[in-house]
Protein 1
Amino acid sequence: MKKYKIAILPGDGIGPEIMREAVKVLKLIDSRNPDVSFELEEAPFGASAYFQHGHPFPELTKKVCSSADAILKGPVGLNYEETEKIPVDLRPERGAILPLRKWLNTYANFRPVYLPKALAHFSPLKPEIIGEGIDIMMIRELVGGLYFGAKEVGVNERGLRYVKETLEYDEEQISRILHVGFKTAMGRKKVLHNIHKNNVLKSSVLWNEVLEEVARDYPQVKVVHVLVDAAATLLCLNPGQFDVMVMENMFGDILSDQGGGILGSLGLMPSACLGDDKAYYEPSHGSAPDIGGKNIANPYSMIGSVAMMLDLSFGMSRESKNIWDAMQNVFSQGYSTADLSKPGGDIKMIKTNEFGDRVVSELQKIPSNG
Ligand code: IPM
Ligand code: MG
């Protein structure tokens, strides 16, 4: 029997309610697989943790995360007024998410942009552009670049306020994420789209140099170089040409949100953040404080993050696929939640908890090894 400890960080806004549904799915997986057992331990993280414990990433949460085999994290952040009450460096992004990423050294962020038939009606793209569906794995470097480079704020010799933020990467940071990109491409269509901006940025020149070296280890993979601005356009015009895309941190932040845009919602974007020793899983979207507590947020991204955890942290690829299938089944039966429905659409509207219950009951119909 394998025992896995999972740290549960529900977060803020819609976090706790979508996390509840993800936990339902985890409990079913636990109960129907006699050879694994999950021990779930909840810990505070985010803006609510700041108000309750004085820090958005309290020591007690670090302890829970250190001893966990994997971490499931909900979105964090409160509304503008509440956020204003928190000192700038203790706001959940700078005070919790970025430190978590750095601390765990989760340098590889997997963001699937996945639009199977059952979800196609959510997309703003025309059916002829979507074709057979969209299935892209965006791989984003997560602990380097502008996000973590040296920063300086001050007044210059002309008396003007100025800011300086640096985009730093060394070749080791670049090569390890590129290896992840190539390995992922090897397991899929053996095509890797390298997203860069080498016509302007020196960081991209080094990135591409390192890529030529790493590519020698993967002769079967075809590399396609695309400038990041062009990639933004191509994602709208012809997303089907992409399979695995690899890019630095800031490019990945922006293009993955665009990925959510072409799916029709960031609510359809789960993610996995992997390091060599530790991993955490989170939706790519924010905490939507305006709809928090209303039981209308779709838990897809949180349950999808569970599916990614089972596959990537616990080697349970079959159950992972079963969870994806169960969610598609709920959508193909016409159900959705208010946050994920177009006005006038032909949708059977259900609440967050009902969506979770329906995923669980669909999952029960699929045998654990089937
Ligand atoms: C994301 C988010 C974060 C980021 C924020 C919340 C710090 O936008 O995970 O994409 O910019 O990386
Ligand atoms: Mg983002």
Protein 2
Amino acid sequence: MRQALIAGNWKMNGSLAANAALLTALREQSQSLHCELAVCAPAPYLFQLQSLLAGSSINWGAQDLSVHEAGAYTGEVSASMLQDFACRYVIVGHSERRAMHAETSELVALKAARALSAGLVPIVCVGETLAERESGQTAVVVEQQLSPVLDKLGSQLAGIVIAYEPVWAIGTGKTATPEMAQEVHELIRARLAQCDNAAAAVVRLLYGGSMKPDNARQLLAMPDIDGGLIGGAALKAADFLAIAQAA
Ligand code: PGA
């Protein structure tokens, strides 16, 4: 019922030449996939994504957006600009932005709402740090990150994607076991169901954090893991496609 989504988060990586090679390979080799494929690139490359991916089955998006609609916000990128480049997705609340740009869960909720109002699908990221996991705080932290989003979005919940990304697994090579990830995903789905049963059934919950070709199959086999948000492995066509094939 929920089509798997394998989304690449390129972070601050790429160049016109490297992107062209990667996107061409993805485009050529993605025809026989059963999942949905998407790439989220740095904003300067959105025009390139639009040019090279238009007419293919691959969707594209950005990694952040401004909470404001337009105006004197130097350096910010608005939802309508992302719309201009035919973005389908935008990542909001990635742990790197929460940690390095002091983004709060309340701000993340506003960004998610801004994305939805422009017809974009926000990929809302949540996840605990290692210290929080080790002190048994995972469920509390995820609830704190999620609840402002659920409160703010109300009846629009069905239009989002949620990515559970344990901070200790991002870029570290340490992955949550399929059981550990499933436990949190189940909790997130149950929390969604408290707000909106129909949305809980359709919202895709992605796992992110060192997902690689060799661990993707077991993670994606779990009942509440509906795809992946892929960092490092999304920069190599062969790895990204191998994960998509596992979905
Ligand atoms: P990773 O990053 O796959 O390199 O761990 C995932 C993410 O940060 O979205």
